[in-house]
Structure formats: structure tokens, C-alpha cells
Write a structure and sequence with these properties.
five-stranded mixed sheet, 3 domains, single chain
Length: about 260
């Protein structure tokens, strides 16, 4: 009897221990390997900070009135030499009659610094501000969202192919249309960033009248010469029309006087 009781106790203890081992195995937390985590971040590491940098610059140049147009011509020639393009121009005149020419140009990014340096060979900057904006993070976010949308699109296309009813297919088609629109928007955003990275932008203002004060003799002499030039232009224009008229009136009067003398 004692042996049977001892065997029963041993059996109960053994079963209890095995249940504890089984419960420990059942509730053990899953292990996530480092390789899986590295795979999830490998795509985002393809681009590093500094891969997408947008450069913009804002500058001002002041030149004399006599050199104003020549400076504009030299600057536009320099743009062509760097295979750049002009995106916007604006010409204005202030109350003093001095002109200002504002131009926005796009130049290949790899030559932008040298382009700025060559402008100073034409005329020194009165002020210049150069900004560099790192948008690599934005591009990474766009790539991540694009990948997610493309995967979602593939899943929906599989669901659509397996759909049996027309209503299910129409519902999936509506979701696909929305995803395609989102993909196009993100692709346009990425294209904008890539274009902005490949071409740097300069907004330059060329002002007429550098170093000329309202109380300077140079200012008054220059303005007087301009007024005199305008006056001569008006007189020449009037003479072209007025001289033939005066000659015509002279001969008409001479003819009338001669005819009156004959009658008398």
C-alpha cells in the first residue's frame, strides 16, 4: 500500500513539472533576429543625408547707367555658356528714371558655384545669399510611401482577379483608382525634387545707377544729357515733318503773290 501511495505521489509531481515546462514553452515571447530588422531598414539606407540638396541664391548688382544694358547682355551670354535657362524676367523703372532688371535662371547644379564666381567677373555683387536645403529625408519618405502603395496595388489586383461578383470587382477598381492617383502625385513630387537638385536657381537683380546720389554732380550731368538727347530726338522728329510743310507754305504764298501781281 505504501509503495502504491509513493508511486502515485511521484507520478503527480512528474506531471506537474511537465505542465510547467509546457506552459513556459507556450508563452515564450518570439525572438526577432537582427537580420530581419536590417532587411527592413536596408532600403532607407540606400540614400544618405546630403544626396538630395537644393541650392538657391539671391543677389543684387548695381552698375552705371551707361553700363546697364552691357551688363545684362554679358550676363545672358554667361547663362548660355553654362547651358542654363531663364525662367522669369522683369524690367522696372523707379521715380528717378533708373531701371532695374530682375531675372531668374536655372543652371546645372554641379557648375553653380563656378557660375556665381564668373558673375563677379562681370560685376561685383552688392549682396549675395546662397541657401542649401537638404531634402533627402523627404525623398526617402516619398520612396517609402511609393513602395507601400505599389505593394498594396499588387494585392488589390490579385483580389480583383479572384473576385466573383461584379460589386466586388467595382469596389476593388475604385480603390485601385485612388491608389493610382496617389502614386502619380508622389511621382510628381519626386520628379520636382530631382529637377530642383539637378538645376540650381539664381534670382539676380541688376540695378541702374550704382554710386550715384541725388546730390551728386554726376547725377545731374547724366540726367541733363539724357534730357538733351530726348529734346534733340523730338526736334529731329518735328523737323522731318515740319520742314516739308514750311517749304510747301512758302511756295504757295510765293505763287499767290506772283498771281496777284499779274492781275494788278
Amino acid at each position: 500500500m505504501k509503495k502504491s501511495l509513493i508511486l502515485l505521489i511521484i507520478l503527480l509531481v512528474t506531471c506537474g513539472g511537465s505542465q510547467e515546462n509546457i506552459s513556459d514553452v507556450a508563452y515564450q515571447e518570439p525572438f526577432i533576429s537582427d537580420s530581419i530588422q536590417e532587411m527592413s531598414t536596408s532600403r532607407s539606407m540606400e540614400l544618405s543625408t546630403g544626396d538630395y540638396i537644393i541650392k538657391t541664391a539671391y543677389g543684387t548688382i548695381e552698375v552705371s547707367s551707361s553700363n546697364f544694358q552691357n551688363t545684362i547682355n554679358d550676363f545672358e551670354t554667361l547663362i548660355l555658356n553654362y547651358e542654363g535657362s531663364i525662367s522669369n524676367t522683369y524690367l522696372s523703372t523707379n521715380y528717378q528714371g533708373l531701371q532695374s532688371y530682375t531675372v531668374t535662371v536655372n543652371v546645372p547644379a554641379e557648375q553653380f558655384d563656378k557660375f556665381i564666381s564668373d558673375i563677379e567677373d562681370i560685376s561685383e555683387f552688392k549682396n549675395i545669399s546662397i541657401n542649401a536645403n537638404d531634402v533627402t529625408t523627404y525623398v526617402l519618405n516619398i520612396d517609402s510611401r511609393l513602395n507601400a502603395l505599389v505593394n498594396e496595388k499588387q494585392d488589390l489586383e490579385e483580389i480583383k482577379s479572384d473576385a466573383l461578383s461584379t460589386s466586388e470587382k467595382l469596389e476593388v477598381q475604385s480603390q485601385l483608382r485612388y491608389i493610382n492617383q496617389e502614386i502619380e502625385i508622389l511621382q510628381d513630387q519626386k520628379e520636382f525634387y530631382e529637377t530642383s537638385v539637378n538645376y540650381s536657381t539664381l534670382s539676380l537683380e541688376i540695378r541702374e545707377g550704382a554710386g550715384i546720389s541725388l546730390f551728386s554732380w554726376n547725377y545731374y550731368v547724366e540726367r541733363a544729357l539724357n534730357w538733351l538727347e530726348s529734346l534733340i530726338g523730338y526736334l529731329v522728329s518735328i523737323s522731318i515733318v515740319g520742314i516739308p510743310i514750311v517749304i510747301f507754305i512758302y511756295f504757295v504764298r510765293k505763287f499767290l503773290i506772283k498771281r496777284n501781281n499779274i492781275k494788278t
